[in-house]
Amino acid sequence: MLYRTAGQFKTSYEADQALFPVKQDAFLLGFILVLAWVIFPLTASEFTFQTLLIPILIYSLAALGLNILTGYAGQLSLGTAAFMGVGAYACYKMITIMPWMNPIIAILLSGVFSAGVGVAFGIPSLRIKGFYLAIATLAAQFFLVWLFEKWAWLYNYNASGAIQVPNLDIFGLYVSGPQADSIVQYYLVLFIVCLLTWVCINLTRGNLGRTWKATRDMDIAAELIGINLMKSKLTAFAISSYIVGVAGALFVFMWRGAAEPNLFDIPLSFRILFIAIIGGLGSILGNYLGAILIVGLPVVLNLVPEALGIPLSSSMVEHLNFMIVGGLIVFFLIVEPHGLAQLWRLLREKLILWPFPY
Amino acid sequence: MLRDIFINPFVDMYEAPDLFLQTLWEGLVSGVLYALIALGFVLIFRSSRIFNFAQGIMVVFAALTLVGLYAYGIPAWIAVLLTLGVMFVLAVSIERVVLRPLVGQPDIILFMATIGVSLFLIGLGEIIFGGENKQMITSELGIPTGETLLEPWGGLLILPHLDITVVVVGGVLVAALLAFLNYTKMGRAIRALGDDHQAALSVGISLQTIWVLVWFIAGIIALVTGIAWGARAGVSFALEVIAYKALPVLMLGGLESITGAIVGGLMIGILEKLFDGYWGYPILGGNTETWFAFVLALIVLLFRPQGLFGERIIERV
């Protein structure tokens, strides 16, 4: 009923290829955008901004980057957190060397550095495949984190070895550092996330995206039909690492406020991989659904015992969190290995026919 | 700079042969442990194509269970047996709850499932036994703790008895595993399953039994490694780091190869100690052990994409 597609005729190929061939999809997206741009910022408290809205956006951006590489181009990577680190440190260095720089531009530029590093670590993918490649990306993970720790130039020879985000402003409005308002940071993150999502949707629909998908489905066959594998894999690594790097810069500058090298350690990589897989590999929407689940769940779990009046120590809650998240991951993989995005797709098919069975 | 890389380390090795031998020895000890963990991985991978990320957590979990049971007042050797029982129950329940419903899914899904399992085990272990660092019950298990001092060429070589035990027990365990795989019916079934799933199933090998079996063997290996490593570094979830070390071993040796796991483990154990001692520490500021093994494996893989002993990858369209 709600999702009836009857009567929406396509009279040209262009209309058929449009971003929203079904009108309701466009309405739905519009509704979500209004929610994100207007309703949430007006109603959210400081706590919601800091524990839910901003991290969900940043995590979904990182997962989007990983999804380009793993879901679209089929190259499994376990080094996402390290590339986030490259973005964060690059942004930090640019900001401290050139303090007059516009923070948005610095953040968007910092992705370029991680794209470069990503391509360098992506070169082995031309010869190594599958799990071997996954472990090879772990080389990036461990090496880069070690580098963040040992290369004192990166953190400006701080005694603490950590990077501290300075107060930055755009036309007098603080966007990062202790003086920044959450709502300003939220809007900035939202802007960048929307921008990059829009770019990604169109990239994955276009020529490049199809090349990636062909590489993912079978790289030898793709090569035989004339796809340049080197180009396809390395562009995937570059674009994925770019997005992940931007997410890393946002992660530190808009959310954490400070970063130590071990922040970018392997648990963060896995967290993002969880988001991408539970959300659905090869789907853009999935990243957001996955991030909502993985970021939101611990927050909710923390609130539940209090609400029910069960006295639990905070360490107990943390351990329970681990168990529940681990169990849920297994549960979701068993119930729907293709992720939450697939659930939405099924739901949509049902909605189109509802209330009739056929 | 070039001198630091190409000449000085070798001069150091020549001038202080005792230090060199000490480094080699330490490398050998950790190499045996890497090889053991890698064997657990390889067995599971061969029989079910599952890349078991939970292996490292199983090491910690086994060690924690052992120490925790002992803390409840159970005698040490009975605690070992009980821990083996727990690992068996774990193997059965993983097979039932996680693997069986996921048969036939893409590799990456199974891989993620094992990460889910490892998160679950971390939470469970910490809730039951607490998260703080614990002392391994070394002497209660009858593991010698003294040291033997040798003086080759007027230098000093320290061989802790614990490490000697680790090498001997590790060696015996590897030999026993190889004998099991080669000379028993069950072992042959495991290898058959690794070679060809369909063919193995068609001659009546039970997939479920074998899966439980390999996970249980991985559990036994985990317990042994957990005791050995726990005795050196204490028991806590920081131990899982050694499981990451087993990954480059797998890459280097080849994911399917048992020989590869052993040779790769020893190679990586020794080479990373040598590199850190003679190149990493003087030139790069130390702690290179976190990544050296990965980079080494990566370089080897560039020339042999299937690892040193892995099956030749044949791809068809």
Walk me through the structure.
The complex is a heterodimer of chains A (358) and B (317). Chain A has 358 residues and is mainly alpha-helical. Chain A contains 14 helices and 4 strands. A two-stranded antiparallel ribbon of chain A has the order 1-4. A two-stranded antiparallel ribbon of chain A has the order 2-3. In chain A, helix 5 (103-122) crosses helix 10 (229-256). Chain B has 317 residues and is mainly alpha-helical. In chain B, 73% of the residues lie in helices and 3% in strands. Chain B has helices at residues 2-6, 8-15, 17-48, 55-71, 76-99, 107-129, 161-183, 185-195, 197-202, 207-233, 241-253, 258-284, 289-303; strands at 147-150, 157-160. Chain B has a two-stranded antiparallel sheet with strand order 1-2. Chain B is globular, with a radius of gyration of 20 Å. The termini of chain B are far apart. The model of chain B has no long low-confidence stretch (mean pLDDT 82).
Defining key terms:
heterodimer; A: 358 residues; mainly alpha; two-stranded antiparallel sheet; two-stranded antiparallel ribbon; 14 helices; 4 strands; globular; B: 317 residues; 13 helices; 2 strands; 73% helix
What form of chain A results from the Cα inertia axes?
globular
- Overall, the morphology of chain B is globular
Helix content of chain B: over 70%
The arrangement of helices and strands of chain A along the chain is HHHHHHEEEHHHHEHHHH
Number of domains of chain B: 1
Taking all residues together, what is the mean pLDDT of chain A?
A: 87
| Tally of DSSP β-strands of chain A | 4
Order of helices and strands of chain B: HHHHHHEEHHHHHHH
> Pair with the most extensive interface?
A-B, 47 and 51 residues
Strand order of the largest sheet of chain A: 1-4
In this structure, how is the largest beta sheet of chain B organized? 2 strands, antiparallel
Q: Output mean pLDDT of chain B.
A: 82
- Report the biggest beta sheet of chain A as strand number plus sense, adding barrel if it closes: 2 strands, antiparallel
